# Entry
Amino acid sequence: MPSLIRFLVVLGVLAGVAYGALFALTVFVEPTPREMTVKIPAKKLNPQ
# Structure
């Protein structure tokens, strides 16, 4: 039973580290906006 508890504690710590890393990414990383160009074929603009 102690090995099961140790396993669950290790999984909990790893999940906490992953959650903390994702939270840090959302707080500290600012995305840079940039222009986007999408080419649309002429066949889709003027269907016959």
Remarks:
- The chain has one domain: 2-45.
